[in-house]
Write a structure and sequence with these properties.
Blueprint: H1 4-16, H2 26-29, H3 31-42, E1 47-51, E2 60-66, E3 69-75, E4 81-85, E5 100-102, E6 106-107, E7 114-115, E8 121-123, E9 142-146, E10 149-153, H4 162-172, E11 180-190, H5 194-201, H6 207-210, H7 212-215, H8 224-241, E12 248-250, E13 262-268, E14 296-302, E15 307-310, E16 315-324, E17 327-337, H9 348-373, H10 388-403
Antiparallel strand pairs: 1-10, 2-3, 2-5, 3-4, 6-7, 7-8, 9-10, 11-17, 12-13, 13-14, 14-15, 15-16, 16-17
Bound molecules: FE2/S2 (inorganic) cluster and fe (ii) ion.
Length: about 400
């Protein structure tokens, strides 16, 4: 447990924060803050754990692992998706060892207690009959399947997806994310505190200098006045293609009570770019029910930690994973239509090119950011207008820390 002394220390840091400025050094370097980050964010918020296409058959499972926790995600009877703490109810061994596979039930490698796919206890050898076996199942973990994406929350009282579903289900349905599959995933280790990864993702102030490949096709590095006409021209194209241009910003102060953060925004690529490809031409078959390319891309947030980018023919999901206070992993998952065949319908190198080259560049600048933040000369500087989403994250972060 965190001591009162540590709580005061964090409360003082939050109170001393200067609005509109970057975070003070201890937010990145303090073990106490990192411990609170884990409790307040990573063990509370919903985390993307997988996609339903990864576990298509009854008994298919995968492990979702974060810090020292391991969760079994399994498809049980009647297509129910279960999330179960991977901790044996006998003496606590990990029950499931393989990272993914198919099984009829989970048998603990230590003394062979066996658990059904829904976590209930199937058999406990030689256990006295007077124990209530119904109370010895693997502990359930909160799980939500939203548009084919599997989210888990380790919180005992997780937030509700009700509002998020009501607002985002109709918007995302045409993209058919539930009818996609994972074409590729890559983990990029970054020697930096997790917040520097999230801060970097949420602003494109750095894009002109750091991402010439991205800046050729995406207008997000330009000021709003220059982007607005592009987006206005996209409206008719999006309508014709079946892609939603609704706008939601329910993050931080705008987050509905009891709900995860969520947001949706579709913006136009530059003329000549149908999707996020090197030459502007398609990368894969159209997603879902789209009938044409609108040359748009959607920024989607389901929780603040798992942003998505949805083009007409592929989507990307980001995961920011803390390893320790100084080390993180940025994982990217590329989704394509479930029927798309590699080599025929898409070329993997072309598909992943933009966000691979962009993420490699981000890794470099984020690590340099961390090195400077570590310095005795570091002093938080002011944000500019283009960093509004990073400020939004900082404010949501501080609010969560203050109330956790
Ligand atoms: S710890 Fe699992 S059966 Fe003993
Ligand atoms: Fe970047």
């Amino acid at each position: 447990m965190e001591s009162t002394e540590h709580s005061c220390e964090i409360a003082a840091l939050v109170a001393a924060h200067r609005k509109g400025y970057a975070l003070a050094q201890p937010f990145y370097l303090s073990d106490t803050v990192f411990a609170r980050d884990l409790q307040a964010f990573f063990f509370q918020e919903w985390q993307l754990a997988g996609h339903i296409s990864e576990i298509p058959q009854e008994g298919d499972y995968l492990l979702f692992e974060m810090m020292n926790e391991s969760i079994i995600i399994v498809r049980g009877k009647n297509n129910a998706i279960h999330a179960l703490a991977n901790v044996c109810r006998h003496r606590g061994s990990r029950v499931c060892i393989e990272p993914r596979g198919n099984t009829k039930r989970f048998t603990c490698p230590y003394h062979a207690w066996a658990f059904n796919l829904d976590g209930s206890l199937f058999n406990a050898r030689m256990l006295d009959a007077d124990h209530d076996r119904s109370k010895l199942g693997l502990k359930p973990v909160a799980v939500e399947v939203f548009q084919g994406l599997i989210y888990v929350s380790l919180s005992p009282s997780p937030t509700s997806f009700e509002r998020l579903r009501a607002d985002l289900d109709p918007i995302l349905a045409p993209f058919g994310l539930a009818r996609t599959k994972i074409a590729y995933r890559e983990s990029y280790p970054v020697r930096a505190n997790w917040k520097l990864l999230v801060e970097n993702y949420n602003e494109c102030y750095h894009c002109t200098a750091a991402h010439p490949e991205f800046a050729r096709s995406h207008a997000t590095h330009m000021d709003a006045a220059r982007v607005a006409p592009l987006n206005a021209q996209m409206q008719a194209r999006s309508k014709a293609a079946g892609a939603s241009t609704a706008y939601f910003d329910c993050i931080g102060a705008k987050r509905p009570s009891g709900s995860p953060d969520y947001a949706y925004n579709r913006y136009s690529l530059f003329d000549g770019f149908l999707t996020g490809s090197e030459d502007g031409t398609p990368l894969a078959p159209l997603l879902g029910d789209l009938t044409a390319y609108d040359s748009g891309a959607s920024d989607v947030y389901v929780g603040i930690l798992n942003p998505m980018l949805v083009y007409c023919d592929h989507a990307l999901i980001y995961r920011f994973v803390p390893i320790d206070k100084d080390t993180s992993v940025q994982e990217i998952i590329w989704l394509v239509h479930e029927d798309a065949q590699e080599g025929t319908d898409y070329d993997l190198d072309r598909l992943k090119w933009l966000w691979d080259v962009t993420t490699v560049a981000d890794k470099r600048i984020i690590e340099k950011n961390q090195e400077g933040v570590n310095s005795r000369f570091y002093e938080p500087g002011p944000f500019v207008g283009m960093e509004a989403y990073t400020q939004r994250f900082i404010e949501a972060y501080l609010a969560t820390l203050a109330t956790s």
